From TrEMBL:
Plays a role in the regulation of phosphate uptake. This is Phosphate-specific transport system accessory protein PhoU. One of its GO terms (biological process) is phosphate ion transport. InterPro entries: PhoU (IPR028366), PhoU-like_sf (IPR038078), PhoU_dom (IPR026022). Residues 21-109, 130-210 form the PhoU domain. It is found in: Cytoplasm. It comes from the Bacteria. Keywords: Cytoplasm, Phosphate transport, Transport. The lineage of its organism: Bacteria, Pseudomonadati, Pseudomonadota, Betaproteobacteria, Burkholderiales. Its main location: cytoplasm. Homodimer. It comes from Pandoraea eparura. GO terms for cellular component: cytoplasm.
Length: 235
């Protein structure tokens, strides 16, 4: 994002829209952290706070996408600038969907509180997964700010750890529900929460792949993590 153009206004437009993406990403990260705090403490006020923030995220996605469209229409960018704007449009969609997942965590937590089933399942893996997803999202935003493809490739690789935590929790949850059918209702709520966290990791990974596309001009969404690492490190 440090490349300069003949038009200083073009640079200003690009910097402004990139700043809005980081602002939106920060809001999503805050939503996730708050949703996890609400789950860990079963605090209804925190849960309600996350749900109330969702409309603000939706509005930000629309505003940033409109700004990208205006820049494309005014400046007719090519090459990396065009890839940047197209990737921003796709990245904010992923951020908005990550915010939706944080809202799902809050809503499922609210169900647990309303049903009085909050303490029926040991969900230590969910706590760890939530921390991992928040860290991954934070690293993704940092990599986007610097257009750091090495960091982006590491994010794609590290998303696998969240997937593994999810699968491990599902296996444990099935055992809980088989041993005690009274935990089935709460178990399903925790299952949806765990899936939401896994999806947030996926959205962070998607944005990391767009970072690589911006810099290299290569769509890496369909290559293996190992091939991606070799390709980036071979730069």
């Amino acid at each position: 994002m440090n490349d300069k153009h003949l038009s200083s206004q073009f640079d200003s437009d690009l910097n402004q829209v990139c700043s809005r993406v980081l602002e939106m990403g920060g809001l999503v990260e805050s939503q996730l952290v708050t949703a996890m705090r609400g789950l860990n403490t079963f605090d209804r006020a925190l849960v309600d706070e996350v749900i109330a923030t969702e409309q603000r995220l939706n509005a930000m996605e629309v505003e940033i996408d409109e700004e990208c469209s205006k820049i494309i229409a005014r400046r007719q960018p090519t090459a990396r600038d065009l890839r940047l704007l197209l990737s921003i449009s796709k990245s904010i969609t992923n951020l908005e969907r990550a915010g939706d997942e944080a809202e799902k965590i809050a809503k499922r937590t609210r169900h647990l509180l309303e049903d009085g089933a909050a303490q029926t399942v040991n969900f230590a893996e969910i706590k760890l997964s939530g921390e991992m997803a928040a860290q991954l999202l934070r690293r993704t935003l940092d990599a986007f700010a610097r257009l750091d493809i090495v960091a982006a490739a590491e994010i794609v690789r590290d998303d696998k750890a969240i997937d593994n935590e999810f699968r491990g929790f599902v296996r444990k949850l099935v055992t809980y529900m088989m041993e005690d059918p009274r935990t089935i209702s709460a178990g399903l709520e925790f299952l949806f929460i765990a899936k939401a966290i896994e999806r947030i990791g996926d959205h962070a990974k998607n944005i990391a792949e767009f970072i690589i596309y911006i810099v290299k001009g290569t769509d890496v969404r369909h290559i293996s993590r190992e091939d991606l690492q070799r390709q980036v490190q071979g730069e």
